[in-house]
Write a structure and sequence with these properties.
Blueprint (H helix, E strand, L loop, with lengths): L10 E4 L5 H12 L3 E6 L3 H9 L7 E4 L5 H14 L5 E4 L17 H27 L5 E5 L3 H4 L5 H21 L4 E7 L5 H4 L3 H9 L9 H13 L8 E4 L7
Parallel strand pairs: 1-2, 1-4, 2-3, 4-5, 5-6, 6-7
Length: about 250
């Protein structure tokens, strides 16, 4: 992948930036010249290993759970103090667990609440905490990591699908509310060969690839490239849901 300086001098925050997709996004943005702030929930070593391997310099690793609004407010203050700006927020942090959709009793209230607290409320709370930084100067961009599950209703469990549909609705609402200073876009992958997929039965993953018109699943780098494009190139866009799914809804 060719690096360039299209984000030179900019600051990007990637929540959950130490994970499989988050680390690919962090690398792509750093390679484009951005200073990257990586947040993590519990695995500091993984987040720091990603940050240490990024191109460029002046990156930052911060423990800040997206479920804790006070921690997010402190994160925004830390970014303001160190950089004085925030150009791009990537809401990448998310969780799920596999539960058959028909087995409604197996999807516990605890998991429903956890999924919505992280996947939807966490993204909203991060935008809320960073709003003033994003609104400053010429304005910034928010990229929400959604999923084709929010449209198809097919995914790891019913709550996960619903949380991603809610994220896309939030993208549209906040794109309107924060315009013209802040753009808000969802990047919506199908199956991604990231950490979650690697825990699944390889035969099942191969089946999912065969069900995709382009006959493969997305790589974390496919998702990262789309995030970069939204931030750096597709700048007359807001409130959109950008698919990275290989045509999966056509199957």
């Amino acid at each position: 992948m060719t690096n360039n300086s299209s984000l030179q001098g900019q600051v990007a925050l990637v929540t959950g930036g130490g994970g499989g997709i988050g680390s690919a996004i962090s690398r792509r943005l750093a390679g484009a010249g951005a200073s990257v702030v990586i947040t993590y929930h519990s695995d500091e070593a993984k987040a720091r290993a990603v940050a240490d391997d990024l191109a460029g310099e002046n990156h930052l690793v911060v423990q800040a759970s997206v479920t804790e609004s006070a921690a997010l407010a402190a994160l925004a203050a830390q970014i303001a103090g160190r950089y004085g700006r925030l150009d791009l927020l990537v809401n990448n942090a998310g969780i799920t667990t596999p539960v058959p959709h028909a087995d409604m009793d197996a999807l516990s209230d605890e998991w429903i609440d956890r999924i919505f607290q992280t996947n939807w409320r966490g993204a909203f709370a991060t935008i809320r905490a960073c709003k003033e930084l994003l609104m400053a100067g010429e304005g910034g961009t928010v990229v929400n990591l959604s999923s084709v599950a929010g449209v198809t209703g097919i995914g790891s469990n019913v709550a996960y699908c619903a949380s991603k549909a809610a994220m896309d609705s939030m993208t549209r609402s906040l794109a309107r509310a924060l315009a013209p200073k802040v753009r808000v876009v969802s990047v919506s992958p199908g199956w991604v060969l990231g950490e979650y997929a690697k825990r699944m039965d390889p035969a099942y993953i191969q089946q999912q690839a065969e069900l995709t018109p382009l006959k493969r699943l997305a790589s974390p780098e496919d998702v990262a490239e789309t995030v970069w494009a939204v931030a750096a190139k597709l700048t007359f866009m807001t409130g959109n849901i950008v698919p990275v799914d290989g045509g999966r809804p056509l199957a």
